[in-house]
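Q: Could you predict the 3D structure of Type III restriction-modification system endonuclease?
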Amino acid sequence: MKIRLQTLEHQTQAIAALGHVFDGVELDYSSRNEANPVFDVGDPKIAENIAEIQQGQLEGVPAIAKCLRTRQGDAYLGVDVRMETGTGKTYVYTRAMFELHKRFGFNKFIILVPSTPIKEGTRNFIESDYAREHFADIYGMQTRLSLEVLNPQKRSKGRKMFPTAVTSFASASRLQRNRINCLLMTDGMLQSKATMAKDYDQTVLGSASVPYEALADTRPIVLIDEPHRFRKENKAWNTLIEQIHPQAVIRFGATFPKAEKSGVVDYNNLVFNLGSIEAFNDQLVKGVAVQYPQNPAERSVRLKLTSLSASKPKTATFRDEDSKKTFELNLGDSLGNVDGNFAGITVEGVGKTESPAIKSGVTLSNGQILARGDTITSGVYSDTYQALMLERAIVNHFDAEWENFRRARKVKTLSLFFIDSIDSYRGEEGRDGHLRLKFEELLAEEIKRRLAGFESPSDSLSREYVEYLRASLADVQATNGGYFSADNSSSDEAIQAEVDAILRDKESLLSFRNHDGTWNTMRFIFSKWTLREGWDNPNVFQIVKLRSSGSEISKLQEVGRGLRLPVDEYGNRIAGEQFYLTYLIDFTEADFANRLINEINAEAATDTRNVGKLLEQIAAKYGQTEKQLFILLLTQDLIDTDKNIIEGKAEKLFSLYPEFNTGLKHDKVVEKPLRVNIRKDNFAKIKSLWTLVNKKYYLRLEELTDTELQECVDYVLGCEEDVYSQQVGLVRQERIQRDETGQLVTQSEALDTYKIEDALTYGDWLKAAYKQTFLPTEAIHAGLVRRNADQKLPDDFFTKATLAKFVSKFHNWMQDTFVNRFSYTKIEGITGPTALTNADGQPLDSIVQGNVGVFRDTQSKVPERYLYDAFVYDSDLEQQNIKRSSVNEVVVFGKIPRRSIKVPLYFGGTTSPDFMYVLHTEDGDVTLNFIVETKDVKDKNDLRGTEKLKITAAKKFFESMQEAGVKVRFEPQLKNDDIAVMINQVVQFG
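A: Sure. Here are the predicted structure tokens for Type III restriction-modification system endonuclease:
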């Protein structure tokens, strides 16, 4: 199995924003070859570009809220990119290096991260085969990113050498045009005077004998990961600015630090803002389902840290919140002296802590850090409660595992456990710890119970799952593994194999099979908070917190390890569906879901109760003025004269105008994933239609004759709208002077031009053209020969820009040429499991609500003929459809689960219909099937060209079913189309 990186829209938006910052900016390429091109931080073009991005003038990139458009006048260019955890931040800053190199020639980048786990995660991604192949496809095989990693130098008695990573990075020349140079380091290495400030007796770049100087001479662009860990008051930040003197600092993160004095988030030229609200609402990450078992104990001792003394003897004072008795504990004292359930937990540190959020507190031996005022509860640590949580976690896992295994493309399900003691898992002297033994005992019991439910599996999928379970039962220990910081120094081969599988071999962990074809049953991972940063796996569907996190980390960061969207067994990312991460915690955090929701909603730049700041932007989208939309909302009794949403009207407003919903949608963080039940009687009436539309079809394009192929290549390479265009940069000068009236004005003029180099070899250009168009290389070559004979090709014809234009013209040609030259043919065979049925074709009991609709109308009665037992929808048009479909001609109808039926398009991609109906004539003799795809426009003329082609393709798809004897009709529905009228027309005219 190989992971296949896919470019998502929000990621390309972030890349586009970063690229636009430097558009038209004068770059000085006369600097030394080992340095980046130099620009003037005060160049007014930079400020102009950033203003365009923030005001929403860059096509496809969302505007930045006015209150976030802050900047600092520094000696370096600061740029911020905000991306929620799990949305591909590492991908974006890696691709940003390729993009800035391609467009502007920057080739010296330093990535600065706050910890070793994050450093290792970044290194693993950049050096992975799947990342290299992905970026080679986009930027060409010849462009490569050379990564140097700065690690602590090994102690030796002899002469200390200049750090190799710094030497290699600093001395690389931009004359190596296709090489991007990157140095990866932690803040600890940045501040290491022993390594970075030492004056060595060797030099780099002819004169630099100190690593700081060598790096400063490269005029680097610094990329910072996790900016909240690099406050501007911190030593690491000051070292970066004062010693490295970067030209630009681009910060990438979900959380940005607040200024120490004002408490305001210190955004510096924020050009992209994908916060947690957008990430959750747009299904760019999993939703979160929070669970906690009730406390079975009759009494739990609650200890509150009331005070601490960091001077010797160091002490911590706790108070029993029920009896009010106080206990003073010294370093090394056990909390078991207060209550037996705390046995094994001692006071390990008092005073300064390792947590950036708690400067002074108490560190316990289980890794938990307490601030003054924090409370811990003994019942959470009892063996009985720990076993209860393990049992619940195992049941949760297998529920999710079967649901993911039965998909058409299987998804391997992983669970991550955070525990409070390494010994409880690893044990001592080669023996497993008590927690691992208990877990494996409970796991074996549950596997046996699940196997009993598959006593006589009738379908191949169930038989395959039984094999997987039996392999797990045969070697229970192989199903789980751990990673702890102490493992790095372990010589145990079995432990190292576990660590490698978890930390470094992501593809193996996502695979159902080992290289030899045997089952890979590893899917339960244990750690002691070590994996809370720098590591993630897209297929983590459950996080189990068998230890409290104290107050050192935000709720969003806690769930961050499991938010990424999953990948299937072939390595493809699955988007457009509602997935949930189950977060299993103890009873002391019963309010976790509400706290997480509040944390997410607190980030909103605008008050969701007042729509005033959003009116102008949303009105423009609907072709209205701000005043017109305000009056409309006022007359509809949705807002008051102060533009506040009227109590109880928020859901109606959001369904009519979803753009106003800047808060977290209600189904994204829940205590239990919202589901809708499938009405079995109604499904029986629609089963035939559902089975038919889930049959597999292949798209067949008519073959081109040799003559047509030649005409295609000649058209794409033709002189009209030529694919060749020389890439030229412009050097501009702006002067401030007085006009005739004496006012100061800015006068701009072009001083010079320079050529942008992005040449490809002829072979690479041909290969890339074939990969992106599937036109035979022989045909492209022959066309180029003809074009050259007719009009000599320029010397710099074979560039990335020419290639992009060639591919674009080909796709336009294909859309026009094949509009009537494609067909669909059914593939005979077993359908397998679907979004509504299991492999036997029997309906599921329920499905996740988010795959049918975000909103739930609890005021309206659910129509008797509706497929589901709940009134759920995504838009006002869909809500009206459900209300208006209870007409006599309808036998049964339902919303089609999101992306469950994908009609392949001849120009790439798929389209998905929204509603399905079984209809009959008035006399009941004739049954008709009706498929509807809703479009959010009022008139067909408002449909974009691509949308029109999607409708054409969908019509042809369902017409091919008609030709096979299936009575089915497909129609698009626009905003002004009444579904009842559409149904009547289908019944009347067939």
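Q: Anything worth pointing out?
A: The radius of gyration is 31 Å.
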